[in-house]
Amino acid sequence: MENIDHQRRLALATTAAALGSTVALGSVATLSSGSAVDSATATGSSTSAARASTMRAYQIGTQQGIGSLSLIERTAPTPGAGEVVVEMRAAALNHRDLDILSGRYGGRKPAERVPVGDGAGVVVDIGPGVTAVQRGERVTAPHFTLWTDGDYDPAIFAADAGNTRDGWLAERIVLPASSLVRIPESLSFESAAALGAAGITAWAVLETLGRIKAGDTVLTLGTGGVAILTLQIAKMCGARVAITSSSDDKLALCRKLGADITVNYRKQPAWHEAVRAANGGRGVDIVVETVGASSLSQSLAACAPNARVGLLGALGGPAPAPPNLGPLILNNVILKGITSGSRRNLEDLLRASVANGLTPHIDRVFAFDESAQALSYLATGEHVGKIVIRRS
Fold it and tell me: Which one is the CATH code of 201-337: 3.30.70.100, 3.40.50.720, 3.30.70.240, 3.40.50.1820?
């Protein structure tokens, strides 16, 4: 263990040194107090030119499904104290957006709620007291807009973009200045949006929980946004990756993206055994469990001693029987629930992406006026990776 910790510290120190020039240039930085700003920003004033009287926005309506989504014209937002207005350039979809539109995510929301938690854009207006960001800066933010750093607290759901506060599926969005992360020049708006909740979640399992290192074997399930970003981030870190799907065509694409082990779980129902066999009889070190209780028994059975498992949700529905927790104890496995991550997690992920040239795999890009079609495509499950909505 001491040798592993030494190797890890050495690897992190090397990475930090490589990133130093990037951070110094300000391509990725926390928007904290003390940054240089123009005189208008320093006084918290706003120019009328930065403000529009109206904007187009989608609202979730009666929450009976995608058909409830409507595009309307509404009053454009103005920033309050400590807030900024961001003009949306790209938004990325997650499965929870479908649940919110169907009233299945924490209960029903106000009909006028703007959906979608991930996005990126340009700062166009600044509220009183904001001294760390200028108009024209390219920014993104985590969907938990008040979770800047530290441990998870359920209170963060009170300011959850696209859920308990308006999200990115509008021409403009108001955000706390403290939530913002500058977008590196080398990342497009589409890539920055795609690295949102799915990327933060994958990072939280692989790095924060999993303490990933070169040579580890990572298992993830399916080919959605979290799974594919898990594949890409794990390969960036020098790990081997095993991934499952019911589609041979999707698995072929995963191999092109770097997957070392691919298993069709329809053809091989005992996929945990297939993963172990393909890994030389050894279990996996980290599991990004995207399906939930219905596959947990097999995920645990695929684990090596001292593995770390991040449990993300319940896309697979209820388990037919209680999961077998025997391997959890016999192999000293750590099992932890993961609820996305903080602004610091997003900053770290963007830094690592810049240093290693990671570009998130985007399946399709839709126009802003095609948002309903984008959500319908997400609902089909035919995608691999992320679906993005672009506004030009």
Answer: 3.40.50.720
